[in-house]
Design a protein that fits this description.
The radius of gyration is 24 Å and the shape is globular. It is an alpha/beta fold. The protein has three domains: 83 residues, Rossmann fold (3-Layer(aba) Sandwich); 180 residues, Rossmann fold (3-Layer(aba) Sandwich), CATH 3.40.50; 160 residues, Glycogen Phosphorylase B (Rossmann fold, 3-Layer(aba) Sandwich). It has 16 helices and 21 strands. A seven-stranded parallel sheet has the order 11-10-9-12-13-14-15, sandwiched between helices. The longest helix is centred in the last third of the chain and has 18 residues.
């Protein structure tokens, strides 16, 4: 079987891994700046540079693929040869494998001694939802359930799932129409949908009669507009990770019942011991996307007088995003107190929390970001925008400071206030720990999981 792949972006990088590389003859891209170069050790060609009679399939590995099929048909390609990456599992007869303890196991051979749960997420990235799902899986395992994490796309947290002996299935988006997968779903006693972003995939669950739990974490209307839930069924239950999510959910689905289920963070065997820094250390952690607000932080740092700022260091941690990062990185590079670090694993990030005196979360929209909860867990005070979910627990400077979203003057003042008030900073760190224990500790969440999930299984 010979195929050509249309696209050289993230989706091509992720889903090409499902194919034998010897079956891929080339990649196709409309971008003239990419043509003639290589991608995954294969040549990138223009759409009109390939003899389509020599390939069995052209697989479109692009998210926004409208127009590509018409373009190929216009070049004389047989429509039957053009398939989406979502169809390759069924069209090419690929098998779904569970990754467990370093082994790949065909789903038909997979057996559980316990009751079984499938926990669906959009991708295995080292971001909030997948990390929360990982910890929920550990709690459910402790309660006697066999758990598999299913993900539409693979990602960097897969290695940590292996380390924790949590079975997972990556790249399920390539198996939208696979009968084998429907059979596999029916073998589970319940399904937990970890985010609205898997709603389009949930069409595969219309036939399912065991409990389905939607654990929703989005608060922005764009998510609710783009990811519509299917019609309600008696076996569907709705959970939210905070009051902001509940409010947005009721705006779009006022007739459906929803209740809070916070995520939890496991207590580490040994709490981080703070490092004594010569300079006060501020940390921000998150992917470089506009929603997270790295540009807001850089603009606020720029406002701080040089004679004060020279006594500070700012770590901006997270994977870069070309277009958005470029907007503010030039300014960041001009401020010597800013240190840029790429994506870190959970263990690496844990070590960084021992460096932080203060965590900053300047997000324009963020439900209940795990990085803030991790800071509270480690008794680190926080500066957060009023669009961050934990801000509701931080009234009257409890656990840190809250500033109005995008208000760089308020953020700058909060940073300076942290610098000037060491004793208050220590007290706010202790208050942050109290917030963690009350809402996000294992003991706080365990009974809620029993009451809102386990009782229906």
């Amino acid at each position: 079987m010979k195929c050509a792949i249309f696209g050289t972006g993230k989706y091509a990088e992720v889903f090409s891994s499902l194919l034998n590389k010897n079956d891929i003859c080339c990649y196709i891209d409309n971008d003239i700046n990419k043509q003639g170069k290589e991608f995954n050790w294969k040549k990138i060609v223009a759409p009109n540079e390939i003899d389509y009679s020599n390939v069995d399939y052209i697989i479109v590995m692009v998210l926004k693929d409208k127009g590509i099929k018409s373009q190929l048909i216009g070049l004389g390609v047989d429509e039957k040869k053009i398939i989406s990456y979502k169809e390759i599992g069924n069209k090419l007869g690929l098998h779904i494998y569970i990754n467990s303890c370093g082994h790949q196991i065909d789903i038909k051979q997979w057996k559980f001694p316990e009751k079984k749960l499938l926990l669906m997420v959009h991708e295995l990235s080292r971001t909030g939802v997948p990390v929360a799902a990982m910890h929920l899986a550990e709690l459910l395992k402790e309660l006697g359930y066999g758990v598999v994490i299913g993900s539409l796309r693979n990602g960097s947290i897969a290695g940590e799932l292996q380390d924790r002996n949590i079975p997972y299935i990556g790249n399920l988006e390539a198996f939208y129409y696979c009968d084998d997968f429907k059979e596999f779903i029916n073998s589970f006693d319940g399904v937990i949908m970890g985010t609205l972003a898997v709603s389009k995939f949930a069409v595969n669950f219309k036939f399912y009669r065991n409990p389905i739990f939607w654990w929703i974490n989005e608060t922005h209307e764009n998510f609710f507009e783009n990811y519509k839930l299917s019609e309600h069924q008696d076996n569907i239950f709705y959970l939210a990770d905070g009051d902001k999510t509940v409010k947005m959910f009721k705006t779009y689905y006022p007739e459906r019942e929803v209740s809070n289920l916070y995520y939890y963070l496991p207590e580490e065997d040994e709490r981080n011991s703070a490092v004594s820094n010569e300079k006060i250390c501020f940390g921000m952690v998150g992917s470089h996307v506009r929603r997270k607000g790295q540009d807001v932080l850089v603009a606020a740092i720029k406002r701080i007088p040089d004679e004060i700022r020279k006594n500070m260091v700012f770590y901006i941690i997270g994977p870069e995003n070309g277009s958005y990062t470029k907007e503010w990185k030039t300014q960041a590079d001009m401020i010597p107190e800013i240190k840029m670090i790429g994506e870190l694993s959970q263990s690496e990030l844990k070590r960084m929390y021992s460096e932080f005196d203060v965590l900053i979360c300047p997000s324009r929209d963020d439900t209940v970001p795990i990085v803030v909860t991790q800071a509270f867990q480690n008794s680190i005070p926080c500066i957060v925008s009023n669009q961050v979910g934990q801000s509701m627990y931080m009234k009257n400077d409890y656990g840190g400071y809250v500033f109005e979203s995008e208000n760089t003057e308020q953020l700058s003042d909060a940073i300076v206030s942290m610098y000037n008030n060491k004793e208050k900073r220590a007290r706010q760190g202790r208050e942050g720990r109290e917030i963690f224990e009350q809402y996000f500790s294992k003991n706080a969440v365990k009974q809620e999981v029993i009451n809102k999930i386990i009782r229906y299984l």
